Amino acid sequence: MIRKHFLTLALVVLGGLGLAVALGSTVAQPAAARGNSPAQLGDQGWACPVLLGFVHCLPPGTSLKDASSPSLTALVFDTDNPNATEAAFLGMEHVLRADVFEKGGRPPCPQDPPTFEYRDLRTTDLNIPYYACHRYDSSF
Hints:
The chain has 140 residues and is of the alpha+beta class. It has 2 domains: 1-33; 34-134, no CATH class. 31% of the residues lie in helices and 21% in strands. It has a 6-stranded antiparallel β-sheet.
């Protein structure tokens, strides 16, 4: 009986450690780029397209167009100029590919009023197979 509880506890601890490592690695890259402008990020190999009126900078080697990434984190700036050297940083936007989002039980988006839900980007002018969650208030 004690052995069974020990194994269960070990699995819970190891699972928690794995989650912590996974979350740390997904947040580290965009956080390192904070304070940069769209122009600086573009010079470093980031793609910074204008999406729905704002510049969204994506890490090098990633793209929303081909839907190859199951998830991405973009840095969003309050400008429609991807070459801007100065622009207010609005925050991060986390996107999940539609199939991943739908299989994952439709996670909440607690940081983004007014709906606090991921937005289906297939229903926008972008028509890309992703759901987006802003890590800032995008109700403006």
